[in-house]
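Entry 14. Ran structure prediction on the chain below.
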Amino acid sequence: QNSRHLLVAHSITTKLICLHQHNEMAVTDKILALLDSGKCIALVTDAGTPGISDPGAILVRRVREHGYPVIP
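Output, structure tokens:
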């Protein structure tokens, strides 16, 4: 929830999708569908480095496999 507080403090009202070890596969499919529809996605983390010490490795790998750029 740290990300939500930071976004609110800066008046950013972007929808957040929670990704964690128990829903990573389902959320990855949802993110890919959003990318396929032309949306831009940002992966943020409340702790750790996304894809290393935080869930997100599967998301990053599959996004790249589908031909989308991943920019750190």
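The two ends are 21 Å apart (CA to CA). Will compare against last week's run tomorrow.
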